[in-house]
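User: I'm curious whether this sequence folds into something compact or stays loose and floppy. Could you predict its structure so I can see for myself?
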Amino acid sequence: QVQLVESGGGLVQPGGSLRLSCVASGNIFGVESMRWYRQAPGQSRELVAVIAGSGSTNYADSVRGRFAVSRDNAKNTMWLQMDSLKPEDTAVYYCNADVHGFLNLRNYWGQGTQVTVSS
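Assistant: Here's the prediction. I'll summarize afterward.
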């Protein structure tokens, strides 16, 4: 079994910063791409950022230049540094990862962490 656990969400004023964490634990033989998604009320889930096992990254246009994704492969951990936050960044943020188990590669989701940007 593999679990992804996010943390770091909360309430922040516009222009502020938050740092989200995602830790993968369990029977892990390696982690490939890791991703952050978000879902605002009444909207579909959208991809925010992705980081490959090599460390290459990509971002949604709406967050490029404000958010930065990073990871520590030895700790199976990914972070999302969010700066210059806007009210439209308010959403539940989900961690997603492709994880190698024994003889398999599966996709997993975390439970989500709420980010609210409001004055």
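Summary: The mean pLDDT is 97. Residues 33 and 52 are 4 Å apart (CA to CA).
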